[in-house]
Automatic annotation (TrEMBL):
InterPro entries: DAP_epimerase_DapF. Belongs to the diaminopimelate epimerase family. This is Diaminopimelate epimerase. The keyword Cytoplasm applies. Signal peptide: none annotated. Transmembrane segments: none annotated. Its main location: cytoplasm. The active site is at 75 (proton donor), 200 (proton acceptor). It catalyses: (2S,6S)-2,6-diaminopimelate = meso-2,6-diaminopimelate. It is found in: Cytoplasm. It comes from the Bacteria. It comes from Parapedobacter indicus.
């Protein structure tokens, strides 16, 4: 048994356990351990867990696991939180380039407002499923417009879509969206958590791009998104079905640190 220091961060209520794994001590394939640490009753509790690791050519590497213990694809809010963690550790300054599951990301920290701007990958394909949209913003997303989102059965309907014949094997994150003011209100069922989370960064990004296509927005766009845990902003440049200069912006905050033994 050894004692390990962990850090807890949250971005718009999407919460993560982070370990500084620059010494390589955290066993990456231990699915049971990650699941136990993320468990809200038997562990620390979180939507996901991340390892900050050394990698050649970049400031650090982000390794992301969903709460079910499986290593995942890109997590947008996790990306913003691990940048805040890297700055708190003194590894990076106001800007950084780091490696994640979907490639390199550039991020800027706006310290005065506790706001982190994270550059996402380009998106070049958006598919349709009836009136819903399917796209990959680093993780796969399904975007469906609904009426009366506050009372909408997000977990039940999200689970039905995530486990239908099309998505059962690989899974999909399901975002329900309703127009609100000059932006959108979004609630997301996340694969790998298999529940609704308070925010999903790649999901908010997917919603902004899908709604830009629906509304025929070309060129630069800026979309405010309200989620249960706070506010996010997505900026992008659209040329036909190609989205470039996609930025996910929002808060990322240290919550607490502690020690755990296993
Ligand atoms: N919460 C994340 C998304 C995490 C990945 C997702 N659960 C998946 O497995 O696709 C975000 O902020 O993007």
């Amino acid at each position: 048994m050894n004692t390990h220091t962990f850090y807890k961060y949250q971005g718009a209520g999407n919460d993560f356990i982070i370990f500084d794994n620059r010494n390589g001590g955290f066993e990456r394939n231990n699915v049971d351990l990650v699941r136990r640490l993320c468990d809200r009753r038997f562990g620390i509790g979180a939507d996901g867990l991340m390892l900050l690791q050394n990698v050649d050519g970049y400031d650090f590497e982000m390794i992301y696991f969903n709460a079910d213990g499986r290593e995942g694809s890109m997590c947008g809010n996790g990306g913003r939180c691990i940048v805040a963690f890297a700055q708190d550790l003194g590894i990076v300054g106001a800007e950084t380039d780091f490696l994640a599951a979907d490639g390199v990301h550039h991020a800027k920290v706006h310290t005065m407002v506790g706001w982190i701007s994270l550059k996402m990958g380009d998106v070049t394909a958006i598919e349709r499923d009836g009136d819903a949209y399917i796209l990959n913003t680093g993780s796969p997303h399904y975007v469906k417009q609904v009426v009366g989102l506050d009372a909408y059965p997000v977990v039940e309907s999200g689970r039905d879509i995530r486990y239908n014949d099309t998505f059962r094997k690989e899974g999909v994150n399901v975002n329900f969206v309703e127009a609100e003011g000059n932006g959108y209100y979004v609630r997301t069922y996340e694969r790998g958590v298999e529940d609704e989370t308070l925010a999903c960064g790649t999901g908010a990004t997917a919603v902004a791009l899908a709604m830009a296509r629906l509304n025929g927005i070309e060129g630069f766009g800026e979309t405010p998104i309200r989620v249960a845990g706070g506010k996010l902003t997505i900026r992008f440049n659209r040329t036909a079905d190609r989205f470039t200069e996609v930025f996910l912006e929002g808060p990322a905050e240290f919550v607490f640190k502690g020690e755990i033994t296993w």
